[in-house]
Amino acid sequence: MGFNIDKQTLQELNLLGKFKSGSVYGLFNKVETSGGEHLLSNMFQHPLEEVTAINERSAIFQSFEKTGTKFPFDVQQLGLMNDYLDPDAGKNKLLTLTDLFVKKILAMLTRDERYKKIIQGLQAVIVTLSKCHQFLSTIRGTDICTGVFGSRIKAIELLLSEPKLEALRLIDIYKTLPLTVLANYDHLLKNGLRKQMKEVLTFIYELDVYIAVSSVSKEKDFSYAKALPGEDNLLEVTGLYHPCINGAVGNPLSLHRKSNVLFLTGANMAGKSTLMKSIGINLYLAQMGFPVAAKEMRFSVREGLYSSINVSDNISEGYSHFYAEVIRVKQAAEAAASGQRLLLMFDELFKGTNVKDAYDGTLAVTQAFAEYEECLFIVSTHIIEVGEALQGTSNILFGYMPTIMDGNHPHYTYQLTEGITEDRQGMLIIQNEGILELLQ
């Protein structure tokens, strides 16, 4: 079925995008190879769904981080190897020998580069196989081999021990090979061992991702979340922060079946939206088995993630800002009512309408959300009277982002605090900016 997340949520949380400024993908995209980049992108687009798979991938990243492994392969050689293995499959040995002979003659008589590229490609295969063998020797006995990734290591070791590949790996690339030997290996690699060679490249791309992501985790001092069954409906985290913000303030959070709604209040600029994005991003990373920006984290596996943080009007559909908000809440309600286990986040519900309707709508929707105990919700608002009306409603946890006044100037702690804010500094900020004086 797949993990459910829509385009708006992906954009609001800035999860994807190689060239998007501040994207979460960009934070982890430190891979060396195009194959590694493709694998990393695929991981980001397809979060895992099973507890075991999540915890196993997390364990692999941790083993690479603990070992501190560096990527040992030559990227240029990998490119030559990949280009060499791609074409010309299916020829028999005689045709391969004939083809190589013709290309060698053309290389001698003209500037034809095809024979040279074949030699370079075969050399790249030999170099790569040799480095792969050396790498496996260097990590023997480490957590990488003894942990979850051990079976993958053993499979590659078995593949490289194939007698013909072992003989090829030991060839001196600086010596000229007889044409018949060259043709024999060319045919073997592109036909009989073609699948095995692709498997070696896939293994190397996996190493690229594991090494790159674990190095980012070590550099940023991230941690690894523990995945739990979805039916537990739990999200417990300490020191959680936005992974793409340097020096971000860490916060605790504990949601569970009997306290599944965080009702969040606080002044504008106090950090409500950033906190919500931090929760959503880290839940998504945890669902991928990736490192998270937190001290500790335990979470029940979700079936989807849904946010409404930066809803805008839709001119092409004729939607006003308020109607776009209503449609977004309707979509979320349908998703929750479908029985899926989701994390749903709503920032400043119904801010596109008048205060009375926003109050009534926020109150009614939040009360309705609290009844869906298979989902977790975060609802923020600056209409603090809604929080007061929700007091005594079961399943709702109240938190706020404080504002500290230094004379007439507000300062923000960005520290989630239990309760409902009493901050009302909007008019004070307007006065501080001298707007009224400008208009007089």
UniProtKB/TrEMBL annotation:
Source species, domain of life: Bacteria
One Pfam family here: MutS_V
GO biological process per UniProt: mismatch repair
Domain DNA mismatch repair proteins mutS family: 259-440
Keyword Hydrolase in record: no
Keywords: ATP-binding, DNA-binding, Nucleotide-binding
Protein's name according to its UniProt entry: DNA mismatch repair protein
Species in which this protein is naturally found: Arachidicoccus soli
